[in-house]
Amino acid sequence: MNFSNINRSNFIHAACAEEFDLLVIGGGITGCGIALDAALRGMKVLLLEKKDFASGTSSRSTKLIHGGLRYLKQMEFKLVHDVGTERAIVHKLARHVVIPEKMLLPIYEEGTLGPFTTSLALLVYDILAGVKLGERRKMLNVSETLKQEPLLSNSKLLGGGLYFEYRTDDSRLVIELAKSAFAAGALLLNYAEVISFLQDEDGKVRGARVKNSVSDESFEVRAKVVVNASGPWVDVLRKEDQSLHGKRLQLTKGVHIVFPFEKFPIKQAAYFDVGDGRMIFAIPRDGITYVGTTDTVYNESIDSPVCSSADVDYLLKAVNSIFTSLQLKDSDIVSSWAGLRPLIQEDGKSPGELSRKDEIFISKSGLISIAGGKLTGYRLMSEKIVDLAEKRLNRRFGKCSTVSHYLSGGDFFNEENFKEALNHMKQLAAGVIPEHVVEEWFYRYGKNTNVIIKQTLVLKDKYPAIEQACSIAELTYALEHEMIYSPADYFVRRTGKVFFNREKSMAQLEQVNSFIADYLSQANNVSEKLLKEVKNEYNTALDFR
Ligand code: FAD
Predict the structure, then answer these.
(1) How far is the CA of 6 from the centre of ligand 1 (A)?
(2) Which residues have C-beta within 8 Å of that of residue 351, sequence separation ≥ 6?
């Protein structure tokens, strides 16, 4: 059966029909990572996500698989080592969505670090993080720094340091994990919200009551072990479980703003001082440049963080102070996103000082909750949780094998093989589909691009314009293999078009909405509601209050 919402009633039937070894609540990177690890070990796994996969923090990050440079400042040396090692592994597992990217650290007179300390920090980082030879640090003098990025202000510039970060598309990484978990035998359902827990007479959690947000009906599922991987919502579920004691989450908000590349035409991604002890990124990508992030204490609605005008002012001031020739304004912004970090509260610490390490809480009822962490460390977090679950199940399952299990679309043995696969796709599409479209698909779907190309070749005679055949083939893939239910799933989380291709994609909203409605046989009132929701997503991305 395909990973498609057309099979929704079968999936719900299967979810209710048996007791699972493991129920995972939350379809972000943490939950999907756990589902994959557990399914590969042979556990019977059910994952429930209240909205869409990656609709929480995991689609709202800086979209980097960090090597953990910032942890050096907090003297968290082991973390730098672990994160650096993990970065190399995640790249190997999904080369199409985890791509090395040179990052420039410009050094200014009044900055936090001087040339010597930057060089030393990057050297320590190279060693601790096990950075491979071709990606080790390079220190630049003033003229080399300006050559690398001519838009930087040269006033008080002392030089720069080049190092590597890995760029990702966070929500694509999550969906590739979800597809891999499904292929490994896990059952994953979006638009299924856990509203309360089922407990036995000893008070042990044995399952959950679930709201099917598509039909507004509810159903019950049973599991021997229940994991709460709901990110910023972790304490909401701990409260439901009556186990919200001791350590709690401290949510902090981080926003990113997006400029058209013509307005902010940087050649080179940069990570620079803001002046208040923080640093932010400016990253060019797919015809836009995005800038972020902020880090402010957040106590408002968890469901709808937005970018405020104060956030915009902060980021604009930071960019304009270093890219002085640009003088960017809020009217230049074409999109934005805001996310919440589920950090662990520590008295007397500012948001930036709170540890990014993950934390596990085990309640009297047996509920296992996990919060904190980074995209980068998802695999290690998953391993810890599944080890715990295995102990609780008191049964031997297979060993953790995620270190060598390629994610969906990512089975390239090495860089050479990756390039060969891309060329192969281009040949398949030659003379029909423009090369730039094949490339765009390849960096989104990896080897699964194959399926979309074949579908386009079938559709090309039906649709006079090849662009239309391409669009329909891509949308069909999302419907048949990526569990989309709404146009927002498609435009925000499967393709990122709301951020990276706003104008063009806005013109397609109605058409895509009715195609989805036809495919999933949605009633008129449902598809009207979903159309409103996606339009709202587009508006919110530019509504700074
Ligand atoms: P989430 O992604 O929030 O997933 C939790 C899911 O649980 C949500 O989808 C939610 O809908 C679901 N859920 C909640 N309640 C229920 C319920 N009752 N029933 C069912 N489902 C439920 N990390 C990096 O490695 N690199 C970066 O560049 C980076 N940048 C960041 C920038 C910002 C601004 C922020 C905020 C974070 C950044 N991070 C980064 C951290 C990283 O994004 C997070 O650690 C990670 O995404 C958290 O994933 P998660 O799965 O734990 O939470």
Answers:
(1) 26
(2) 250, 252, 295, 296, 297, 343
What three-state secondary structure class fits 109?
coil
Task: Identify the residue whose C-alpha is closest to ligand 1 atom 32.
Answer: 61
In the chain, which residues have pLDDT < 50? none
Bridge partners of 270, per DSSP, are: 104, 282
How high is the pLDDT of residue 466?
A: 94
3-state secondary structure of 210: strand
Ligand 1 mutation target, pool 64, 71, 233, 298, most atoms within 8 A of CB: 233
Distance, in Å, from the CA atom of 206 to the CA atom of 50, rounded to the nearest integer, reads: 19
Query: Measuring from each residue's beta carbon to the nearest atom of ligand 1, which residues come in under 6 Å?
Result: 25-31, 48-51, 55-58, 60-64, 66, 193-194, 229-233, 237, 254, 293, 339-341, 373-376
What are the residues whose beta carbons fall under 8 Å from the beta carbon of 248, sequence distance 6 or more?
A: 235, 344, 345
The tens digit of pLDDT for each residue in 388-434 reads 999 999 999 999 999 999 999 999 999 999 999 999 999 999 999 99
Note the pLDDT of residue 132: 85
Distance CA 522, CA 345 (A): 43
